[in-house]
Structure formats: structure tokens, C-alpha cells
Amino acid sequence: MWVKENCYNENNFSDFKDSTSYFIELNKDGFPTIVVDEVFDSNKVNNRLFIGDISDDYGFSSLKFFCLRNDSVIYSEHLNYTGMNRAVFNYEYNFEELSLQSGDLIRYFFAVKDNDGVNGPKEVLSRSMFLKVPTKKRQKEIRKIKSLANNQSFTSLQKKLQNFNSELDDMKTSMLNKKSLNWEDKSSLNNFLKKQKEIQNDLEKLKKQLQNEL
């Protein structure tokens, strides 16, 4: 926005008057901006990592994190950031600290304020994010589904082990009757070792799944 200012000059020794016009450009202080991305592990859904980016033409006065239940603030925290006109921040929060109850719906977001000293700090909120705590009925259904999935994985692994042991017996019998191994024998042995590695990986995967559910 441009503003025109006129200045008039005169003195006591002349009737002549002179004037000068000035145009001054005024830049209105804009609102800050904030963008936040959320990352979480499907095995630990209550633990969230946030990566954010804030910017403003004249800098910031505060950055906060809010959690609400039924539109009431149940947790807030001032966050640190580094930078004048732009800053990138990361923040990790475990929602289990809120003593969540079955069926709770938690809304959470970040708020940044600029440092406008003339009209007062202007606040902008990030997008709202949500955490829905399953009801007891839904939690029971989830446990049942996971149990069935684990049983299916265990049954599949058992079949692989049975086939593996059968192939091992056949290979022992075949190789004991030979003085040297040919190309086909070596190829069969390599395939056998690959299957052994796959079974070990499946065992580790199943073990981790069971540990995460404890």
C-alpha cells in the first residue's frame, strides 16, 4: 500500500511557497504459516513423531502443541525452535501420558504466533489431527483378529518346517550315496539354504509380532 505525504516550505523573506511530495510504501504484516507432517508406527499408534515448518516475514513469538478432548484443552506444551523468519522443528509425543479411556477422541494441533508488536501477535493453527481410542468391544475384536493372524502365520510356518525337514532327510539320503556332488546337487543345496534363511526370517518376524502385543 502506498501513502502520499506532502511537505510545504516557506520563509519570512518571500511569498514563494515550495512543496515536495513523498510516496511511502507500507507493507502490511502478514500471518505466519505452519505445515506439520505426522509419522507413527502401526505397532505403536499412541507414539507420534511430528516434523514441522514455520515461517513469517518478521519472526515468531511462540510455538505450542495442544491436545483437546471434547473441545477442552487437556494438554499443552511450549516448543523450542531455531530460526528467525523460518524454522524447522520436530516433536515426539506419547499419547499414553494422557491416561486415555476407551472411546476417547483426541484432537491435537500446533499453534504459532508471530511477533507483531504493533497490532499484537497473530496466531495460526496447523491442520487438526485425531487419535481415536477403540471401544472395549473393538479392542476385543482387534485382539481376536491379531490372534487369528498369528495362528495362521504359525500354522504356515509349521508346514514350511515339515517340508523343510522332509527335504533335509531326502538330501541326506541322496548325498550319502554319492562320492561327489554334481551341478544339480549343488544347486539343490543352495536352494535348501535359501529356504532355511526364509524360515529363520519368518520366525524372527513372528517373534517380533508377539512381543509387540505383550
3D architecture notes:
- This protein has 214 residues and is of the alpha+beta class.
- The protein has two domains: 33-133, Immunoglobulin-like (Sandwich); 137-212.
- It has helices spanning 136-176, 183-212, and strands at residues 2-11, 14-25, 33-41, 44-55, 60-69, 72-78, 86-94, 105-114, 123-125, 129-132.
- The strands form three sheets. Strands 5, 6, 8, 9 and 10 form a five-stranded antiparallel beta sheet that branches. A three-stranded antiparallel beta sheet has the order 3-4-7, with no helix packed on it.
- The relative contact order is 0.11.
Set down the secondary structure blueprint.
Elements: E1 2-11, E2 14-25, E3 33-41, E4 44-55, E5 60-69, E6 72-78, E7 86-94, E8 105-114, E9 123-125, E10 129-132, H1 136-176, H2 183-212
Antiparallel strand pairs: 1-2, 3-4, 4-7, 5-6, 5-8, 8-9, 8-10
Helix pairs in contact: 1-2
Shape descriptor: elongated
CA(first)-CA(last) distance? 63 Å
- CA radius of gyration: 34 Å
Strand content: 35-45%
Count of separate structural domains? 2
CATH architecture of the largest domain: Sandwich
User: Structural class of the secondary structure composition?
Assistant: alpha+beta
Can you count the helices?
2
Topology pattern, helix = H, strand = E: EEEEEEEEEEHH
| CATH class call of the largest domain | Mainly Beta
- How many individual β-strands? 10
CATH T-level topology of the largest domain: Immunoglobulin-like
Mean pLDDT: 77
Q: Assign a percent range to the helix content.
A: 25-40%
The parts where pLDDT drops under 50 for at least 5 residues are none
